[in-house]
Amino acid sequence: MEVVISADVLRRSDIDVTIAGLCGKEPIKCNNNLVIIPDAGLEDVKKEKFDAIILPGGWDNVQTMARSEEFGEFLREKETESYIATFCHGPIALAKHCIGKGKFFNLQVTCYRYVDEKIVVDGNLITCEGPAAAFLFALKIVELLRNTKKAQEVADILLVDDYKEGRRNFGSFLKKPSIHEKKALNGKEPKSAVIIFANGAEEMEVVIPADVLRRAKVVDVILAGLCDNKPVKCNQGLVIVPDCAMKDLENRKFDAIVLPGGLENNLAMAESDKFGEYLKKKEEESYIAAICSGPLALAAHCIGKGKRVTSYPKVKPDLESIYKYVDDEKVVVDGKLVTSQGPGTAFLFALKLVELLKDKQEAKEIAKLLLVDNYC
């Protein structure tokens, strides 16, 4: 999530973003099994000048950074000319390479002064608590590289209310997540979900639900390409490798089918008769969950006609004649239909799915783990 949200927000702010693999350009398997393809390897970019260098968390990732002398040299060379920004337990890698020694951090690491805030800026060093603060973290970088007006514009587009309202919340350090179990808890059957997406999908709306559901021990989360199993280029340029193609799953039962937004992605869904047939077959047995412009695909295939829905505000006129439109709820549930407004509501959308597939207590635990303060 921390890679995807940062890249997406910065690219929407007209900032040139390169996703670089620490060890090269090979596909990278992230903490909760998402596979992304970097734009370049560290070796390819280490001589370039960047205004900001961003280090996501993830225990394996941070340990690799901490062990890499080449990476330490890169950071030391860039320390005086670039903002160095890191998430979660990423400051451990900075500490290993003596970057920003003596500055304020929001992680309790020796050599630094601890501050209990979501985001801390000390000179050119920026630190952030964890995944749920990723939007505010990225918007803070936009402020520093562009200006507050641009950050506000992007916050408005993404429906990030925390930024618009200027809230500053406090939280504790994000602990290492436990490995999701392959066995169900308390003797219950494990749940399953499929996230279907195509070129132009909103990457945050693919990644956040996948990550949250996997942390909640909804262990069988499949990312399926609408058209095939080839890498998918998302709306802001991130390339995600699906686990399989949708056609490979047509006879498989899922507890939830999740449709991210992105107009190009949703247009492809709307134009696909095969996808429409798939949804109609699954409508009674599965939760069908759509976020942002995703409900446009549902409307094209008459899924959930007459039910209560919400969406990204700009597509409201295309839905009002088919659904009972709800303006003032971030997530709307009507029977087996779940809809939500956009990227800024993606955590709440995913946590609602956890509630429905598991229970409220599990959702609360995941919200606490991810520092999602506005979930209740």
UniProtKB/TrEMBL annotation:
<dbReference type="GO" id="GO:0051896">
    <property type="term" value="P:regulation of phosphatidylinositol 3-kinase/protein kinase B signal transduction"/>
</dbReference>
<dbReference type="GO" id="GO:0005634">
    <property type="term" value="C:nucleus"/>
</dbReference>
<dbReference type="InterPro" id="IPR029062">
    <property type="entry name" value="Class_I_gatase-like"/>
</dbReference>
<dbReference type="GO" id="GO:0046295">
    <property type="term" value="P:glycolate biosynthetic process"/>
</dbReference>
<dbReference type="InterPro" id="IPR002818">
    <property type="entry name" value="DJ-1/PfpI"/>
</dbReference>
<dbReference type="InterPro" id="IPR050325">
    <property type="entry name" value="Prot/Nucl_acid_deglycase"/>
</dbReference>
<dbReference type="GO" id="GO:1903189">
    <property type="term" value="P:glyoxal metabolic process"/>
</dbReference>
<feature type="domain" description="DJ-1/PfpI">
    <location>
        <begin position="1"/>
        <end position="143"/>
    </location>
</feature>
<keyword id="KW-0558">Oxidation</keyword>
<keyword id="KW-0963">Cytoplasm</keyword>
<dbReference type="Pfam" id="PF01965">
    <property type="entry name" value="DJ-1_PfpI"/>
</dbReference>
<dbReference type="InterPro" id="IPR006287">
    <property type="entry name" value="DJ-1"/>
</dbReference>
<dbReference type="GO" id="GO:0006979">
    <property type="term" value="P:response to oxidative stress"/>
</dbReference>
<dbReference type="GO" id="GO:0005739">
    <property type="term" value="C:mitochondrion"/>
</dbReference>
<protein>
    <recommendedName>
        <fullName>DJ-1/PfpI domain-containing protein</fullName>
    </recommendedName>
</protein>
<feature type="domain" description="DJ-1/PfpI">
    <location>
        <begin position="191"/>
        <end position="355"/>
    </location>
</feature>
